[in-house]
Amino acid sequence: MGIAERKQREKEMQQRVRREQILNAAKRVFHTRGFSSVTVEDIAKEAELSPAALYLYFKNKDDIYVSLNLQLLEYLSGRLESLQIQKDIAPEEKIATLKDLFNDVYRFDPLILINLFHLQASDGLEKLPPERLSQLNALAGKSLRSLAAIFDQGQAEGRFETHHSTALADIVWIIFTGAVLWEESKRMINPEKDYLRSTLDIALDIFRKGITNR
User: Fold this and answer.
1) Hey, how many other C-beta atoms are within 10 angstroms of the C-beta on 176?
2) In DSSP terms, which residues pair with 160 in a beta bridge?
3) Average pLDDT over residues 105-123
4) Which of 78, 84, 184, 203: CA 20 to 30 A from 55?
5) 172 vs 127: which has the higher pLDDT
6) Burial bucket for residue 74 (CB in 10 Å: 0-12, 13-18, 19+)
């Protein structure tokens, strides 16, 4: 490896580290104070950077927010892809494993996940820059394809009833989205309640039994 190439790699590594530093700082202040009241200056202070330094990596607060959404979707799509390609797990067991997977995704960043679901349900996506919208759609599409592939496998092995695999993937996504938003609405009334895991357990068990050949 030449000196120029090594320096370029070191520069890219430093940029990735700095971006992660900013995103982690943004998570902390968003969770503490909420998205609307936080400023770029607040995030820069939490990251121990000047606002000018922060602007070298992100255009504005919205850019940071969308980047957090992308980070979460990358985590989700990676977990689903890893589950889908496992050969030693039967398709119905993979559906059962989604309980843990979705719960882990929620715990990864509850606030950003909830805001992402609200963003999808509103006209917020239309207001995103085309490049960011394309990235979000690509990761969401990748996640749904991984889910659909699990159903394709189950149907090919005669374990699942024949249904359109993309429609089944959409239904699982609806279960996940609905459970998170419904449980969050209940937590607004009583913050001590946390029934997401049990709700996902019941919903996915019913779904799995409904598509499994007997």
Assistant:
1) 24
2) 212
3) 82
4) 78
5) 172
6) middle
Q: What is the DSSP letter of 214?
A: -
Q: Per-residue b/e over 101-126, b at no fewer than 16 CB within 10 Å?
A: bbbebbeebeebbbbbbebeeeeeee
Question: Cα separation of 170 and 97, whole Å?
Answer: 17
Paired tokens of 27: 């998570």
pTM of the model: 0.85
Local structure of residue 124 (DSSP, 8 states) = G
Domains, the chain, in order of start with CATH, read 1-58 (1.10.10.60), 61-211 (1.10.357.10)
Please compute the mean of the pLDDT values over residues 112-134 and round it to a whole number: 77
Q: How far apart are alpha carbons 75 and 140 in whole angstroms?
A: 11
What digits encode the pLDDT tens for the residues 54-73? 999 998 888 898 899 999 99
